[in-house]
Every structure is written in structure tokens, then in C-alpha cells.
Design goal:
It is a single chain. With 405 residues, the chain is an all-alpha fold. Helices cover 80% and strands 0% of the residues. The protein has one domain: Up-down Bundle (Growth Hormone, Chain: A), CATH 1.20.1250.20. It is globular and about 50 Å long.
Amino acid sequence: MTQGAQPDGSSVARVASARLPRTVIALGAVSFLTDVSSEMIYPILPAFLVGTLGATPAMIGLIEGVAEATSAFLKLASGALADRMPRKKPLILLGYSLASIARPLVALAQAPWHVLSLRFVDRIGKGLRTSPRDALIADSASDGDRGRAFGFHRAMDHAGALVGPLIAFLCIAGLGLGTRSVIALAAIPAALALVVLIAFVRETARPVVPAPVALLRARPSPLVLGVLGAIGLFTLARASDLFLLLAARAAGVAELHLPLLWALLHLVRSSLATPLGGLSDRVGRPRLIVLGWLVHAGVFVGLAFASAPIHAWALFTVYGVHAAATDGAQQALVADLAPRDARGRAFGWLHLVVGLAAFPAAAGFGALWEHHSRATAFLVAAALAAFAALLLAALSRRLERTLLT
């Protein structure tokens, strides 16, 4: 990975007013439908695992950690492979197809290990699609509009994550459906996502580049390694979202209202992701990410001591602002630092670091909660987030000089 240049302010302003490319919009629609499917399931999954299948917090951490670690290795390999393929779309389609098949089968689970097996297949799909998809978004957007493009994609993710829990809530509260029925119905938006991907995502073929083995052996630059180290440290501070829902439940939020709380979180993220991603094009990505990570630390301190439903509703709202500010900016920063013909590998390194850190993060958080307390788990995570912000802040000047050259 090598460094790339940032456009000047007037260039950014001109591009920011332009319509996003069709491929970016289509991939956003695919992510929207996929997240409608996954988030119909996600808010009710903790109660399903604990109440129906008898899982413990440590077991939930293991399930999430294994799933994320599995996808991490595939994200590096798929990114390297995408860099040498004429088209990235076949890998993206394969990845979405595996997830769309596996996810609704959770409705048939009779034991926690059944969910682990299906999450394993789901994460294989995510590992195959994520790096090629991110590289295709970076290729499709202009340099001065990259933060907005990734922000839009994250906004569509979160719009789906807003609609999914609302559908789940209506199915349970309005139609009286059980958890297993709601999970099975998630197959419908998943199938629609595949239709949109096949019909509307377009990609121009390009010459094949060197073999994937050579790409895998190439190492990021020292500066990029520092950025990846900060991101990896921050990932250790990110509890699985299942634990956020368990914290809300512990604070007194009724089980029936958990899908609504989850919808609120993603309403905030969806509303702010595009403008805050565009803000990173203008004010600089590192400083926006540092600020967002510090907000994350503050929210986790709050979740450590939340004791009433209003606490959870307020903290989830602020957490949505943090996520909207950092998600798109973080991906755009990696794209800024990578040459066009190695962006798949660049995102592969990013997702490998995040995935490898996700396993000890999820498993460790669950163990701290189970063997100590919820407060201990969230306070340790908050401290790690603050340290990660300090590390990235120390690199900010070098990053800004590099991106302006």
C-alpha cells in the first residue's frame, strides 16, 4: 500500500455536488436490502440465544468471535484475488449468496452450536464480498468524493438496519409471529438484494494483474501499519453489538422494545453517515475519526452504569453519531492510502486487522461480563478506545502531510 494524493478544496466542492455513480448507488441498494434481512434477526437474536437456546454471555462472545475471525482471513484473500481478476462482481455475488442462504436457516436452530455453524457460513460470505465491494466503491468514486461515497454506502447499510427491526417489531407486536417465523421471513429481502446486485451493478473489465500470492506477500508501509495498529486497538474496544443490546436489556429496556431501540440507533447512523462522510472530505479524515473514537469511549462509560431505559435510549443515540462519523471516514482513509490497482488488498488488510481483533474483543468482553460485571467489561473497552484515539492522533500530522502531497 502506498500513499495517494488528496484534491484541493475547490475540487472537493465541485465533486461533492455531483450525483454519485450508478454502481455506488446500486451497491448501496444491495446493502440496504441485505441489512433489512440481517437486522430483522439481529435485535431478537440475543433473547433467542439466551432465552430459547440457553446460551451464556461467554458463549455469545465465542459465537461472535469465531464468526468474525473466520471472515477476517477471507477478506484479505478475497481482496488480493479481486485485484487480479478482470471483474470484482463475481466474488461480491458469491459472498452475498452464501449469507442470504445461511441467515434465515437460524430459524431451524435447536442449540447454540447450530447458530455458530450458520454464523460461520454467513461470515464466509461476508469475507468473500467485503473487500472486493469496498474496492469497487473506491474505484467508482472520484478522489474528492470518496468519503461521501463510503458515507452513502454506510447510510444505506443503516437505513436497512432501521427498517429491519421495525419489520421485526411489527411482525411480533402486530401480527403475533414468533421469533423463528420472523427469522425465516428475513429470506425475502435477502433474495431481493441478489436480484438488484445481478441486474444493476455494472463493472468494466480490466487487465489481469499479478498473481494473488505476490499480492499477499506485499506489506503495507510503516505509516499505514501505524493506522492499522490504531484501528486494531480500537476494534478491541468495540463490543459485539449483541452486548449493546444485552446492556440495554440490563438497563430495563423491555424485550419488545429492543427492535425499536435498534431502529433508533440506525436511524441516527443512516441520517448522518453521508453528510459526515462528506465532512471528512473537507476537514480531514484522521481528526474526525479521533473525535468519534473518543465519543465511543464516553458512551461505553455510560453503558457501564446505565440503570434505566432512558439511559439506554440516550446512549444509543450518541453512539449512532459516533458510528456515522467514523465508519465511512475510516474506509475512505484506507482508500486514500492505497493505489488503484491494490485497493482490494488494502481493504483486505483493513478487514483482516479488524477481524483478528474482533475475536479477542468479543470473547474477552463476554468473559469480563460473565466473570466480573457489565461495568468492568464496558470500562475496559472504553479505556482501549481512548488509547486508540491517542495513537491515531499522534499519527495525524504525518497522515495529513502525506495526503496533501
